[in-house]
Design a protein that fits this description.
Four copies of one chain form a homotetramer. Chain A is about 50% helix and about 15% strand. Chain A is an alpha/beta fold. In chain A, the strands form two sheets. Chain A has a six-stranded parallel beta sheet, sandwiched between helices. A three-stranded mixed beta sheet of chain A has the order 7-8-9. The N and C termini of chain A lie far apart (about 65 Å). Chains in contact: A-B, A-C, A-D, B-C, B-D, C-D.
Chain lengths: ~300, ~300, ~300, ~300
């Protein structure tokens, strides 16, 4: 017997009705996983094609977010930037909300946006947590995302099981906005590690070291990091990672640059010096301007190494 | 029965005569370990106090390096900089060498210095490898240093067992100079990781994250590195590490700055862009100028965080 | 015969009624100059003390900006940041505006704020230009400010004579927001020049050059800039500049840091790499965190030079 | 009557015999100017083609520098790097020198090289000054170079008139090595100004400013520098400068990168933090690795601006 979404929903004691807003590369995969777990899906996207693709899988398409929210127990938003998140929430709740609805924003945005949205959702009578993700398109596809949740302990407990339908690690980072803060800080450090690893590997190679030998040394020493161990930017060292596939797939330069832009912004607002973070930001921005936005962010190695012609 | 050095020497089939030049913080501990392993020690230092301290432990003091070298099967040099290493070797071999002597330079210097010294030692008829160390004063004390060896496979095999008297990991990095190259590259990456971790932790704290919670997140995510896991610069996160002891002990700002100076120099000579390495270099140089040279290099966190008065 | 403001106003064919919002260090001096030129002043400030100080000079105090605007031919705003400018304009015009009123924002804010404010003022039927200033408190005091105006040519011509009551150079930079863009870009370059000059002078001195001799060389060569010629950060080289008065007065570290924050923000939004600008930003942010916010921004020289104790 | 070099020499009371070592792009033009001023030229170059080209103009070619030096009243060296300068002088004087000979090194090298060479020349009984130049190939061609002289006041006075045969500004910078120090520091600041101007102009353009309008603003304000006024990196703003000729001619990226390498080296040795200098260094090094070494260093603008395809 095939377990259809409908059947799974009936079989599950936790199955519920979920509104999903933002059905892009990440969102459509996350929403599909929720359906596969037995939830009933209400969906909205500015692109009718994106919405209809989910309709074909059994979701109900809404033409505005206000009605979608009123008809849903959970609402997940997965949107591209600060302004769109703010506008979406301001519009969605302006006619009032169902007080039982839990809103979850998985977009990557400024923590202050999360704090603002939480306030207006709370003032309207419902609940909100920020819960940005890491793990990329593959994590979304395979329901192995990490969620970084900002909210009260009660709210965290309320969303934890639900989010496990889309991810495998659900972390409580603190109060509202702290999920976003954790994601932005982690990704800033990731960018620094990647740029640093790329320039270190390039220097090592140019000094005459064998990259494989040097990588073993650094990985068993104090220079090791996720970037050197798991996604080493030198092609061939991690055979299944993007650098070994011409920097395709993975975490794009465009996305790390976006996250670094958020890091710069919150550093300015909190008066926090981030010299290496800011420099990494502008190195990636330079790479964007050179047309490398779609490549895995480890392409920094290829960008800084000497051309063969030199 | 107490195992005296003399007894250990008699008991060991590998015990030999070792010349040791440079008996500073590192050198005197390394030489002591060699004696404890049963080797006969011939020592030289520009400071007669340093030499006499080893004499009290049973070493024979020489007043010049030429005679010391001729009387030793292995010669280890542990000296402060490029010029002193070059001059010491040029002087030591100018009257000729014992062809069976293996010279080992454990100083941290430019790989080109190692290549030059190898050439002149080789021309004189003896053998040379570079074998800089990591692990610091504690590693020297406890014979747990890592040695990064540059030389042929035969030479590596010849020194491996001997170096195990002073360390626990003996790595073959490649040909002459590659031990130095590996150390300099690893330490440049280490500095980048530490500065990056410090600014990331500071940003996280200023955004409202609990440092302990955020550290757990980063350490199980893509932002992790040796600096975040083992020597996190926020006091209290690694209770036995220098940041939890007011940045005392550990790896000094002065020493990482020296290594970053070498990295800058070899990057210039090899035409390798090291933007984050160079910036980390000058951040540490600024800290040196502020009197922080003797503190553990994780003191960067304290340096960049806001004063309580702000 | 003493020329009182009233008399000056009667004597002047161009005297008019001016609303002034924001009477801080800059604003109160600018408003005073306008009164001295014969204009009738309507004033508003969140601080009643600031407003009353202008009342004592002959200005009329308003308790809200809506009535002030309706009673004024020109309205000048001189406010601290993006949010306050936006909120002030949104509030000021919400009951409608006098169509003949020309609004002039002299605050330093994001050009996108200017564009937004221009749109809402224009939609309400009145006119708006952005016109941030350079020249500091002394320029405000002496009516020698430079105004950088963003608006149409007609609008520029309409405000030019009026602004000459507060400054001596009135520049037309382009359309709405371009006054702000010009100011932010100029000040980013200024910060880069100042940090660069400070590290260059420090290096020169440490290499053994006499700072006076080297300054003459650089100023007649390719290394010259406003920072080296007019406000050289080495004390004594420009005897009447802030570096020669213990870095008091001048353009504060806090203000250049604010401008660099705006530069970072607009660079992010426009995808423009600013590696040196971003690094200068975070060097100044570090200096802020060290309590140097009130010193002239040339204090960077003092910050990076070696302590005498080293 | 045509004034041949021979005739000019006879006519000049100051005409003398000059040895010239290093007849590259700069050296051959400088030597030619000296001949045109009436001096008798003795020349040496590792390239016999370069030497023979000068022979065709009337110079006497020497096959080694020792004899050349003994036959010359002044000896000028114009060589590519530290090692070649050191080796050339060590070799040239090892058989003794004519005590009246004044050696002038116009190469761009580390001030410590100058100090070392001065010591060995002085020990041999002759005199030495360092006198690096700015002004490039055009300055060499037209005898309009600037010379930065390191030596005693007497030595400066002795070489001043002679150097005026190749340049128009002869500056006394201080003692031995200070000519080099001044040049390196000036050029570091120049690089910072150029990178800063490039990123500022690019940001301005992307924010919507007209580059011509913004350039006028910055040049009459605090953001001005030699780079913005004389060699603005935006094509068209200085019609006769390299940026307006596809970045051809001018001061090459390869040469500024070499100078920045020297700045990094002396900053390390003197413990001087140069954050912007070091970052500019590695930005130029990145550009070298991208094949831009032969372009004018203002090509940084082209390098960082967005591709039209974005």
């Amino acid at each position: 017997m095939k377990v259809t979404p409908q059947l799974a929903r009936m079989m599950s004691t936790n199955a519920t009705t979920v509104g999903f807003i933002g059905l892009g590369q990440m969102g459509n995969r996350m929403a599909t996983n929720l359906m596969n777990k037995g939830h009933k899906l209400n969906v909205y996207d500015v692109s009718s094609d994106a919405a209809n693709a989910m309709k074909a899988k059994g979701a109900q398409v809404f033409s505005n977010t206000r009605e979608l929210a009123k008809a849903s127990e959970f609402v997940v938003t997965m949107l591209p930037n600060n302004d769109i998140v703010t506008q979406t929430y301001e519009d969605m709740i302006k006619d009032g909300v169902n007080k039982n609805t839990m809103f979850v924003d998985s977009s990557t945005v400024d923590p202050n946006v999360s704090k603002h949205v939480q306030k207006i959702v709370s003032a309207a009578g419902a609940s909100f947590v920020d819960a940005p993700v890491s793990g990329g398109v593959m994590g979304a596809q395979n329901a192995t995302l990490t969620f970084m949740v900002g909210g009260t302990t009660d709210e965290y407990n309320r969303v934890k099981g639900f989010l496990e339908g889309m991810g495998k690690r659900i972390t409580h980072c603190g109060t509202y906005g702290m999920g976003e803060a954790a994601k932005i800080c982690n990704n800033m450090m990731l960018a620094i590690s990647m740029v640093g690893t790329a320039e270190t590997m390039n220097l090592a190679v140019r000094l005459g070291l064998d990259p494989k030998v040097f990588n073993e040394i650094i990985n068993s020493s104090t220079g090791r990091s996720w970037a050197s161990e798991i996604n080493n930017p030198v092609p061939g060292l991690n055979p299944t990672a993007p650098p070994s596939d011409n920097y395709n797939g993975g975490f794009s330069t465009a996305l790390i640059t976006k996250d670094l832009g958020l890091a710069s912004s919150v550093a300015t607002m909190s008066n926090s010096p981030i010299p290496l973070g800011a420099l990494s930001h502008h190195i990636y921005r330079l790479m964007l301007s050179k047309g490398l936005g779609n490549k895995d962010f480890s392409v920094i190695y290829d960008f800084i190494k000497n051309d063969s012609s030199k």
